[in-house]
Amino acid sequence: MGQILITGGAGYLGSHTVRRLAAAGYAPVVLDNLSTGHRELARFGDFVPGDVRDPVILDSVFSSRTIDAVIHFAAATQVDESFRDPLFFYQNILHGTMALLTAMSRHMVDTLVFSSSGAVYGPPFDRPLTEDHPLGPLSPGARGKRMVEEILTDMSRATRLKHISLRCFNAAGADPCAELGERHCPEHHLIPLLLQTALGQRGQVDIHGDDYPTPDGTAIRDYVHVDDVAEAHVLALNHLLRGGDSGPLNIGSGQGHSVRQVLLAARKVTEHPIPIRTGPRREGGPPQLVADASRARALLGWAPRHTDIHDIIATAWAWHKKEAAAAPQL
Asked: What are the structural domains of the chain?
């Protein structure tokens, strides 16, 4: 099989996808500036240090290798930060995507899987969301993802570009062998925060809002195992390389879990009380966000293998315990 360029392949989703690609027989080429990624997590591919916004780096990668397709992860992801510095977020994802598409065009590479987000949808949020649901992203970060989707649609109309935008919901968990996992600095995702608290690395976890119109007042999200998300990217790539149609696809479990339900599951898995503190809602956070992923099932043959929230948390727990054991003792 051919060489596949993965931008942001040293990050959480990217590194799991690189491993999946290598296992499927592809030759992954990872491009990452390591601003949020980690070099040791990209060990399953050929690593190239560099920024996707740099046309010189991109030309070097494409001219020195035979790249058959691209999987594009590289982007800033923290919702809170996107409100504080929206220009940085827009420059990051829009400049990076346009530089990438320009290089792909110059080097006649016309196949792209874009890692988008379920956050591109707008209200109402009271049911599982299909790809036909109204769009209305609530944060600059999510609006940037939506803008990229529009760029890709326009490019597909004007050129030979084939693309799939995978609208991924809340990726969680870790590689079941604990070789890869989630490592953000600072951490901003719920499950790692809960587990770091269980390990004594934090004193408590802040719960952002307990007055949502949900059964227990906390926000509901669709948690899908990161390895299942990685598999979806590989299946989407296979689909395009076989000549399949372009378009958006949801990637989610179809099940919603509230913050309190995830907290209770984490307490059960870790056997730790995990203290919490309740504060105001986060800006840009809908009360519920759950995927209808039936189109991905039909088109790609994709289905999540890890469907129990306790099992998802258990894989993350194994990874975080391993990370804690390897950390220098002060």
From this structure: 3-172+224-251 (3.40.50.720)
